[in-house]
Amino acid sequence: MSDAMMGEERRSLFIISVAAELAGVHAQTLRIYERKGLIEPARTQGGSRRYSELDIALLRRIQELTNQGVSLAGVRMVLSLEAALAQAQARISELEGQIREQRS
Description:
This protein is 69% helix and 9% strand. The chain is mainly α. It has a single domain, classed as Orthogonal Bundle (Multidrug-efflux Transporter Regulator, Chain: A, Domain 2), CATH 1.10.1660.10.
């Protein structure tokens, strides 16, 4: 994914009511997720929450896990493991690229 595309996904666009609707949850649920440290939306100067496309994707993932019966503590662990896996996969790809360069 290009940096421009990532920038677009990280741009904070949605107010809490819209983010809740897009994620299929109640706005109060988003506040609970924030208090539990599962998500950290951007804030305006006035303190209003703003959610990005990446935040919406994360909220949908949290909702998917909770719908499967995973507790919020379990969700935190799953998200942490998924992030660690993504970092490891990125590092593997980087190393594979270096190996290809050295072989050519």
